[in-house]
C-alpha cells in the first residue's frame, strides 16, 4: 500500500455535516486521487452522515481492484450535526450494514472500531470485539482495525483477533500515541494517524501555523503541510498518512509530500514542538 492515502472526511459540508458546497469538485477530488495512485481511502458512515460514502460510491464505483476503502463504526450524528457514541454491539452491526449499503459493497475491506469511551479494556470492549469478529466471520468485513485506543486496548485485542490497522492522533505537536505506534511496528500492524496536519489551518493550535514547521518548510523549500506529512512518514516504516482536503491543489500538495526529505536539523527543530 502506498504511504499516502486520502482521508475523505472533509468532502462533507461544514463541520463534516450535510452535502459539500461543490459536489462536482468533491467527485473530481476522489477521481484525481485514485488517478494519481492513491490506493487507500478513509471514510465513515457518520461523515455527513452518509454523504461521504455516497460520494465515494458515485465517483469511483465500480472500484479499482487495488483500492482499499477503510471505514469505521462506533459513532453517529444527531439532526444538528452533534456526534455521539453508537458503539453497542447491535449498533456496530447496523453501522457495518449501513456502510455496505452506502458504499455498495458486499464486504468492507477494513472496518475500524472507533472507541468513544475513556475506559480501558473491559467487558464492554469484549462485547465490541465479539461483534466485530462476528461480522468478519459472516463475510461482511475482511479485516478489523481499531481507532482512538490505548496500548492496553491494542495488547488486549491482539489476544483475540488479528488487527489490520490502528488510527490514533499523531503529529509533531502530539506524540502521545508513540507507544501504540511502536507496538504496531513490532507486530507489523499499519498505523494510520488521524489529524496528521492538526485540526485547523490557522491559529495558535495549528500545526501548519507553528513556527517550527513554517521554519523548516521555508528552509527546505516546501509547504508546512508537506513538512508535517514527511515527519509522520519518517516516524516508522509501518505508518500511512491519510491527509484530507476539499481542494484539488491541496490534494496535489499532500501527495507530493512523499518526495520531501527531512534532514537532521529539521528533525531536531520539529522535536522542539513536543515535551516528553
Output the number of helix runs.
Answer: 10
CATH class of one domain: Alpha Beta
User: Could you tell me how far the N terminus lies from the C terminus, measured between alpha carbons in angstroms?
Assistant: 31 Å
Which structural category do the helix and sheet elements fall into?
alpha/beta
Number of strands: 9
Low-confidence blocks of residues? none
Looking across the biggest beta sheet, what order are the strands in?
Answer: 1-2-3-6-7-8-9
How would you sum up the global shape?
globular
CATH topology of one domain: TIM Barrel
Largest sheet: 7 strands, parallel
Give the integer mean of the pLDDT values: 95
Helices and strands, in N-to-C order?
A: EHEHEEEHEHEHEHEHHHH
Give the % helix.
Answer: 25-40%
CATH superfamily of one domain: NADP-dependent oxidoreductase domain
Radius of gyration: 18 Å
CATH architecture annotation name of one domain: Alpha-Beta Barrel
So what's the oligomer here? single chain
Percentage beta strand: 5-15%
Sum up the structure in keywords:
276 residues; TIM Barrel; two-stranded antiparallel ribbon; alpha/beta; seven-stranded parallel beta sheet; 10 helices; 9 strands; globular
Can you walk through the features of this model?
This protein is of the alpha/beta class and 276 residues long. It has a domain at 6-167: NADP-dependent oxidoreductase domain (TIM Barrel), CATH 3.20.20. The protein is 39% helix and 13% strand. It contains ten helices and nine strands. The protein has helices spanning 23-35, 51-60, 89-103, 123-137, 151-157, 178-187, 211-220, 224-235, 248-255, 264-271, and strands at residues 6-7, 40-42, 68-73, 75-77, 83-85, 108-114, 141-147, 165-167, 190-191. Helix 2 (51-60) links the parallel strand 2 and strand 3. Helix 1 (23-35) crosses helix 2 (51-60). The protein is globular. The model has no long low-confidence stretch (mean pLDDT 95).
